[in-house]
Structure prediction request, 168 residues.
Amino acid sequence: ICIRGSGLFRGYYNNPDATEKAFRPGGWFKTGDIGKRDQNGWFWYLGRVKDMVRRSGENISAVEVEQVLRGVDCVIEAAVLPVSDELRGEEVKAYLRRAPQFTNDLAIISAVVNYCESRLAPFKIPRYFECIDEFPRTPSNKIKKSDLIKAKPDLRVGVWDRVEEKWL
Prediction:
């Protein structure tokens, strides 16, 4: 998504390189957001560029997948991150904060996959799943995805692999 207008700043103070990267010709500012325009002319916000998983050339919005995952009764919250993959570039990993009354992780994951199959394109359904009790938080109470990434050197360890149908 790019914007321009009289109220928009003209560049970063004393940082011409950042200004050049942030603006397109004609004064259009690149917001870092991704959107689409539908057949009726409506614009839809899909997420941040940095919150995209790039799987086999497809851009998958983490926000879109997280929204679907939160629709399952046994999931309180969800976070989606990319996992490096030799074949596809990146794969989708879902962290699921389980509701307290649900304790069987495989049953939770099975319910989530079944739910996703009727609501997401097949390539958007996460390959890897990890159930957790709590998410790390920022001071503003957002999920701190950077801490999830730092938690282990390989994000595929200790997860359910939907394709291989086994715990890794």
